[in-house]
Amino acid sequence: MPDDRSFFQYPIFETQMIDLRSDTVTRPTPGMLQAMMQAATGDDVFGEDPAVNELEARCAAMFRMEAALFCSSGTQTNQIAIKCHTQPGNEVICDADAHIYQYEAGGIAFNSGASVRLLPGDRGRITAAQVLTAINPDDVHKPASTLVCIENTSNRGGGSCYDFEELKKIQEVCRAHGMGFHLDGARLFNALIARGETAGQYGTLFDSISVCFSKGLGCPVGSVLLGNKTFIARARRFRKVLGGGMRQAGILAAAGTYALEHHIDRLQTDHLHAAAIAGELQHCHFVENLLPVATNIIIFETRGITASDLVTRLGAQGILCNAVAPSRVRFVLHLDITERMVQQVIEKIRSI
Ligand SMILES: *Cc1c(COP(=O)(O)O)cnc(C)c1O
Asked: Which residue from 7, 80, 99, 259 could staple onto 263, CB 3.0 to 4.6 Å apart?
């Protein structure tokens, strides 16, 4: 079946809106749905779902890590990883804008009973020097610092990417202090494409990695957690305790395998689209402090209008986007946004 939306009658409401609220709004393509329909399935809690096993094996090989675990969401993979790396009363070090702190509903406290040390990074990126200063001394008064979490790309950082050399330095600090090193790679594939890096590079650096299939890769559901065999065996138990053990999950995993084959290289298109829209926003009277666009996310501050008023005005023009703070707006490019839609967005923002 050709991967062409017009060929396929979607049995759902077709919106006329250009939806730039998030890369999670993508719907499976005809080719992806076909792969899902053809998936060989079994009971994944018994370890008997061939499509889940295939996706996990592929991811592990791609990242050069020992094992992988298919989960329902990126929140679940991050929370399971944090649980595996910490004991109650330990402390997690991360950027103040990190998803694990900002958008996981207090999960670090709820699931792991751990505290968090927030660092003021540069657009979501922390440095080895900052991590060093945040590690608590071996003192009974202090929570033990046991885990450093990195987010690449950084969501609230406007899709910014880490410099791999800095990540190596942070890993050295983690090693020297016996701390775990976790990557929230919800959008890692965007970083790999933007930077010309490989998944294997990351797999050899981190103790655990979470990647999302429901963002830029265009899947309806799913994230994968990677680590060594012992880590993933424990993670499997925590997935169960969180109610995340799914049965014929191969239907979902097959979408993931399809996306690994078809939807990684095309992320470059989303990045070009983001750059084109940002190029226009730069000249708009209602925009200031446009963050540098590194991947598929655009974040700017509003001038002379509140973020929510701008979102309403753009909505009236058929463009959906998000107010991420009282005077901050975010656009996210993704698989369902065509070249033509990008041209429309540029024309509409020019006319505001
Ligand atoms: C979206 C996202 C996640 C996971 O979110 P879910 O909606 O739970 O899949 C994790 N980290 C970052 C940086 C994200 O943007």
From this structure: 259
